[in-house]
Structure formats: C-alpha cells, structure tokens
C-alpha cells in the first residue's frame, strides 16, 4: 500500500473479505489480529481517506470494529465496517458517490475459494467512466481449488464465481494455468492494461507450497515495476520461498517523490 500511495498520494480502499483469518488454519494464526485491513489503516503517511471493510462473519466484523477503534486518527478520514455479503454490499459502496473518476481506489479481494462473484469484479472494473480503473488485488485459492471443485455440491456457486457455466475446464488445469486463465479475463474482458499473477506461499512449509495466486490489475504505467519491487522485497533472500500477503503489502521501495495525483 505504500507503493500505491506513493504513486497516487491520495485514495480509497475497499476490502471485500477483510476480517482476520488464518490462512494456515492454526490457532496461533487465528488468534492474531494481523490482517491487511489493520496494516493499511496504520500505513504511514496517512494518505488514504476512505475505507470500506467488509465481511460476512459477525466475529470478523467485531474484530474489524476493534481495529477501527484502535487505528490512527486523521481529520477527514472515514472508515466504514460493513457486515454482509460483499457481492451485495458492493452496490452500496459504488453508489455512495465517494469513488469518482479522479479518486484513486484500491480493492483487495482476499477470498478463500469461490466467495467473490465475477459480476462483482465487473462492477469494480467498470465503475469509472473515465480515467484509470479501480486497482485490484484478486486472490485465487490455488492451494484449495482441487479439493473445493470436488467438494462443492452446489455448482451454481462456482458458476457465480467464474461468471458462467463454462468453468469445467478449470478442473483440468494446474495452479499457474488457472491463474493465467483469470489474468487473461482481466486483460481481455475488463481491459486492464497491466495484469500479472504472483504466487503467495505457505509459511514454514518445505519447499514453500503455493497457497494462493495474487492477480494484480492496474492501468497505471508504473504498476508493473512497483509490483515487481514489492514482491522482490517481500521475498527476502534469507527466506526465498516464504512470502505472505502481509509481507507483500508491507513491502516498499526506497523513498521517492510521489507522482502527481492520478485517478
């Protein structure tokens, strides 16, 4: 997020699945309130002014409310914690009038498997009529998809996630190929100028098993280099196979003067 604000020097943040959650399903991780929303709220300098933190789980929402209460104060900053299905809440967020064509906006879609509907992504990508589209960090649950495909009885859930009933071919692909399939859609259907997928690895696992692919979508010309720098910094030389979401969001390059405001 430091990279994002260095470029835009202002902006808004949408987190569709914001509650603290354990990626490795361990009690130690679950007990920690470390999450992207907390990191972004506390990110300095305090340049982002509008936040929407959403989650369908009531306990997660309670944790987000606590994070909000304990977060840094800033005049003019608005933080809204929203309880419910993000696929329904998105309309209220986009209809608020806050996210204008000139408002730089970042959306984190940190789902587990099939929670984020393709229709929701389309709404985010097509919200602005002019200028740069809402920047997306979309998480694809690479480490769980094989099991999820086989264990989901209600295939309509997968259809909403993919945005159509032509998803069966995904079952025959490996993780990187699935990430490429989504990346192609972000580029070709939603017309993002810069799209790249990055592996997010499980901490402490032998060989660094890939649990997620994070697909970054941006219209900004500096996005590819900034994202590459963030990933390189997060994947430290002494831990080349152990990168996490929080590592990546916290990564930053050497300070440089911000660019002019960009939508």
Strand tally, please? Answer: 7
CATH architecture descriptor name? 3-Layer(aba) Sandwich
Contiguous helical run count: 11
Report the end-to-end length measured between terminal Cα atoms. Answer: 16 Å
For the record, the count of structural domains works out to 1
Order of the strands making up the biggest sheet: 3-2-1-4-5-7-6
Describe it for me?
This protein has a seven-stranded mixed beta sheet, with helices on both faces. It is globular. Helices cover 38% and strands 17% of the residues. The longest helix is centred in the C-terminal third of the chain and has 14 residues, at 175-188. The chain has a single domain (2-250), classed as 3-Layer(aba) Sandwich (Rossmann fold), CATH 3.40.50. With 263 residues, the chain is α/β, with parallel strands linked by helices. Helix 5 runs parallel beside helix 6.
List descriptors:
263 residues; alpha/beta; Rossmann fold; seven-stranded mixed sheet; 11 helices; 38% helix; disordered C terminus
Quick rundown:
The chain is an alpha/beta fold.
């Amino acid at each position: 997020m430091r990279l994002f604000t260095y470029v835009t020097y202002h902006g808004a943040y949408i987190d569709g699945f914001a509650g603290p959650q354990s990626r490795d399903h361990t009690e130690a991780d679950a007990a920690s309130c470390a999450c992207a929303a907390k990191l972004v709220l506390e990110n300095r300098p305090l340049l982002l002014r509008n936040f929407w933190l959403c989650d369908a789980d009531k306990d997660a929402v309670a944790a987000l409310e606590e994070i909000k209460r304990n977060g840094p104060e800033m005049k003019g900053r608005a933080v809204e914690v929203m309880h419910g299905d993000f696929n329904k809440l998105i309309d209220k967020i986009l209809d608020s009038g806050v996210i204008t064509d000139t408002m730089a906006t970042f959306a984190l879609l940190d789902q587990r498997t099939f929670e984020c509907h393709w229709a929701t992504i389309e709404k985010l990508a097509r919200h602005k009529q002019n200028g740069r589209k809402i920047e997306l960090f979309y998480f694809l649950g690479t480490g769980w998809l094989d099991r999820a495909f086989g264990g989901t009885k209600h295939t309509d859930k997968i259809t909403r996630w993919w945005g159509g009933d032509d998803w069966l071919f995904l079952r025959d692909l490996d993780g990187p190929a699935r990430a490429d399939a989504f990346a192609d859609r972000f580029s070709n259907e939603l017309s993002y100028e810069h799209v790249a997928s990055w592996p997010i690895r499980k901490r402490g696992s032998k060989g660094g098993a890939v649990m997620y692919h994070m697909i970054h979508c941006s219209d900004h010309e500096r996005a590819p280099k900034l994202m590459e720098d963030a990933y390189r910094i997060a994947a430290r030389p002494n831990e080349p196979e152990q990168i996490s979401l929080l590592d990546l969001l916290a990564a930053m390059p050497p300070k440089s003067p911000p660019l002019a405001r960009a939508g």
